[in-house]
Specification:
By secondary structure, this protein is of the alpha/beta class. Helix content is about 55%, strand content about 10%. Helix 3 runs antiparallel to helix 4.
């Protein structure tokens, strides 16, 4: 937050108002890209509950339950994170899935495989260093899910996916789920990946929450576990049908316990609020007020992620990054 951030505010509450955690519990809202030292700083000021944005209903409920029971041990945050992994594991039935990761950068490969193993410990991971290896491994080992880096030597991710779709159609094979990994946030790059036949994409560096959502989305569905269904063939023939929606209305609806009135209210408010923020953003950029403009973009990024407008959230993230780059000189 501007002027005084959340940690500074809580520190003042604890010291000047003498409001200890037992008297006034605090739930810290933060992004998954926040400083790695955040946990230590939280302990210093007596914050034992953290939620990563966008906030999930089950995690919020767990925080409230622990607060009501008077549980303020330092292990609570770790327990909440463990509970979240358990929820994901339950959704995908704790099975041993075969997952292929195509990535030519060893550091990126280690990072992604480590995250997947933390979320699904029983998974079998297959590594490929380029698109050609990925294509051959998909045909040979038939993975349940593929993470495909877009930029790779010998054969890039788009070309490998395009060849895979042609082969599946020719041989009447089941549709293999392919999720692109891209360092670029440009819409043209993502559109090109989706047109090649990819089902989804993750922007690097990969965020844990988004990775969990992808794993949960594709591994829990029986439709994606094999079988030569009509939908598989249609998707292989027409990759555009697999495109990720700009607004995941159904996911938002489920998140708020299918409360239609609340859904309409959230959407209406989001549209009205976003129009104002875009107008404010344009005004600030015209005045070269880059610091304030970056805050507006950051706010739009979080708000759109909360309401499950992931494409818009990615765009706002790129705008914020460009504004902060060289004091806004990269902004067009």
């Amino acid at each position: 937050m501007p002027y005084m951030d959340g940690l500074e505010t809580v520190k003042m509450m604890r010291e000047k108002l003498e409001l200890l955690p037992e008297k006034l519990p605090v739930i810290l809202l933060h992004s998954s890209t926040d400083d790695a030292e955040l946990q230590d700083k939280c302990k210093e000021v007596g914050i034992y509950f953290r939620l990563t944005k966008p906030v999930k209903q089950d995690e919020l409920f767990n925080c409230f339950a622990n607060i009501q029971q008077g549980s303020f041990e330092e292990e609570i945050t770790t327990k909440a994170e463990a509970d979240e992994k358990e929820i994901i594991a339950e959704n995908i039935e704790k099975e041993s899935y075969k997952i292929l990761i195509a990535e030519d950068n060893p550091n990126n490969m280690l990072f992604v495989t480590t995250l997947i193993k933390q979320i699904i410990p029983e998974s079998e991971l297959i590594e490929a260093g380029n698109g050609k290896e990925a294509f051959d491994n998909i045909l040979d080992k038939k993975p349940d899910l593929v993470f495909m880096d877009v930029q790779m030597p010998e054969m890039d991710g788009n070309e490998a996916t395009s060849q895979l779709r042609k082969h599946e159609t020719k041989e009447k094979l089941s549709h293999t789920i392919v999720v692109g990994l891209t360092a670029g946030a440009l819409k043209q790059e993502k559109d090109k990946s989706l047109e090649s036949g990819m089902d989804d994409f993750l922007t690097k560096p990969v965020e844990t929450d988004k990775l969990k959502m992808v794993l949960n989305k594709y591994l829990k569905s029986e439709e994606t576990q094999g079988g030569n269904t009509q939908k598989d063939n249609e998707d292989a023939e027409n990759p555009s049908k697999s495109r990720k929606e700009h607004f995941d209305r159904e996911e938002l609806f489920e998140m708020i316990s299918r409360d239609r009135n609340m859904l309409d209210k959230l959407i209406s408010f989001f549209i009205k609020d976003t129009k104002k923020r875009i107008s404010d953003l344009e005004t600030l950029l015209e005045k070269d007020s880059f610091q304030e403009a970056a805050k507006i973009a950051h706010s739009m990024k979080g708000a759109s992620a909360n309401i499950r407008c992931d494409t818009f959230s990615d765009l706002a993230k790129k705008i914020e990054s460009e504004i902060r780059s060289e004091d806004g000189k990269a902004v067009q």
